[in-house]
Specification:
The chain is α/β, with parallel strands linked by helices and 462 residues long. It has 3 domains: 37 residues; 207 residues, 3-Layer(aba) Sandwich (Rossmann fold), CATH 3.40.50; 172 residues, Ribosomal Protein S5, domain 2 (2-Layer Sandwich). 27% of the residues lie in helices and 24% in strands. The protein has a 9-stranded mixed beta sheet with strand order 6-5-7-8-4-9-10-11-12. The protein starts with 6 loop residues before the first strand and ends with a helix.
């Protein structure tokens, strides 16, 4: 019998080569090739379908008109977990037959979140199997006791071999299967170690086929690399239905759950949690929690309003300007794009606020990351406030995008942002030129600014 030919596979993108390469020709990653035996014939499409995936009897055997499906009332049934922020990010709950991937840094609380979700589904009458490849059944049960997650409809399994996991749930027929994690699960037919590109791709493909064939919702835990991306081949995020990132490390008080991809709802939604001794606690008023303890009369702090999906958040942007040496100054940004900060510093230099010999540090309080440009004016205001050692009034909220020529551009959904500011007691708002049809809510004074110079003059004029 001929020995299987050894190939080399890139751990970043999955590109295969007959010999080892120092640099991947596809993704340009260095030293990313590892040995990978080819998948045997039993792990092809037929093998994956035999491993627990069956074609649903309700699925149409031939193509049918979409209007016929609508007329027959074919619609998705959502499974509610009882964790409101999790259900909202998914668009209203889990969809049967869907595969959701949850990623995050070690220790951020991925397993804790999914155990709370599994317990909530069980308390709502849905059978759930939690298959852990990283912890024993006793360890998972001890955490469930601490989280008040004991229910007769939650079944635990400690197994890493995928075929055993799928065989073990046949008599239970759960509505949801949780696999923690996709990097520890493996298929024996694949000639590589668990966590390799081949194993992750094969495990994910079989679970997707299993979910679509049985109508069972599958939740996958995924590890991330040091660059913050999901470990494994890029195809892992393509073949699943939803990708959710759990952001934050073990230290910040708040953890952010952010939807990155969702085939059954909108993306960009954000949920806020706080890690407590009893597990993850939902933050129902995130703006109030993020602004708690804010110093209103300290230079270098400005409040802005950012949209995260359908939710508006009031965030505190802090800046510190310190003396430096020309040519070796630092520009450090936490919570915003460092490239965006460098651009704003250059624009401020053209607006009579030179920072070429200053070190600039910017931080978004609470560990939240701002992904939109509507906070540009707030970042610039915080930097100028620290530079001048002048504090803007504590009742200001600052909104606006800044262009390369120093103009202040409009932001979308201005009325919703202003309404959130009024709800939390802010009296004045520095905004771009107000578009037609946008009316300010009662209780707030609007100050328009067309350029960075006008904005800084309105905030810091004496």
């Amino acid at each position: 019998m001929a020995r299987p030919r050894v190939t080399f596979e890139c751990t970043a993108c999955g590109h295969r080569s007959v010999k080892w390469l120092g640099k991947c020709p596809d993704c340009s990653a260095w030293n990313s090739f590892v040995e990978a035996l080819p998948v045997t014939e039993g792990t092809g499409k037929s093998g994956a379908r035999a491993a627990g995936a069956r074609v649903s009897e309700d699925a149409p055997a031939r193509p049918v008109p979409i209007t016929q499906l609508v007329a027959e009332g074919v619609e998705e049934q959502r499974l509610l977990s009882g964790v409101g922020e999790f259900d909202r990010i998914l668009g209203g709950g889990l969809v049967p037959g869907s595969v959701t991937l949850i990623g995050g840094e070690p220790g951020v609380g991925k397993s804790t979140l999914l155990l709370q979700v599994a317990a909530g589904l069980g308390k709502n009458g849905h059978k759930v199997v939690y298959a852990s490849g990283e912890e024993s059944v006793a360890q998972v049960r001890d955490r469930a006791v601490r989280l008040d997650g004991l229910t007769d409809l939650l079944f635990l399994q400690s197994e890493t071999e995928l075929d055993r996991v799928l065989d073990g749930i046949k008599g239970i027929e759960p509505a949801v299967l949780v696999v923690d994690s996709v990097q520890t699960a493996f298929v024996p037919d694949v000639g590589s170690t668990p966590g390799s590109v081949s194993q992750v791709r094969e495990v994910a493909a079989r679970l997707v086929l299993h979910a679509k064939g049985t109508g069972r919702a599958v939740l996958l835990v995924g590890h991330v690399t040091k660059q913050g991306e999901m470990a494994g081949p890029r195809t892992l995020e393509h073949i699943v239905d939803a990708v959710i990132y759990f952001e934050g490390s073990a230290n910040p008080p708040f953890r952010v759950l952010r939807g990155q991809k969702n085939r059954f709802g909108s993306t960009g939604e954000l949920g806020l949690f706080e890690m407590t001794g009893e597990g993850l606690k939902e933050i129902t008023e995130p703006s109030a929690a993020l602004l708690e303890g804010r110093s209103e009369n300290r230079p270098g702090t400005v409040v802005t309003a950012c949209m995260e999906g359908s939710r508006c958040l009031l965030l505190e942007v802090q800046a510190l300007v310190a003396p430096g040496f020309p040519g070796s100054v630092r520009r450090t940004a936490l919570g915003i794009d460092p490239g965006r900060l460098a651009m704003l510093v250059a624009v401020l230099g053209k607006a009579d606020h030179p920072l070429h010999d200053k070190e600039v540090y910017v931080n978004v309080v609470g560990g939240v990351r701002i992904s939109e440009t509507a906070a540009d004016l707030a970042v610039a205001a915080a930097v100028v406030s620290s530079l001048l050692s002048r504090a803007p009034g504590g009742d200001w909220v600052v909104l606006g995008e800044i262009g390369l020529t120093g103009e202040v551009r409009s932001v979308p959904r201005l009325d919703q942002r202003l309404a959130e500011a009024v709800r939390h007691g802010f009296k004045r708002a520095l905004v771009p030129t107000i578009p037609r049809g946008v009316e300010a809510p009662a209780g707030i004074q609007l100050v328009e600014a067309r350029t960075v110079e006008e904005a800084m003059g309105a905030l810091f004029a004496r």
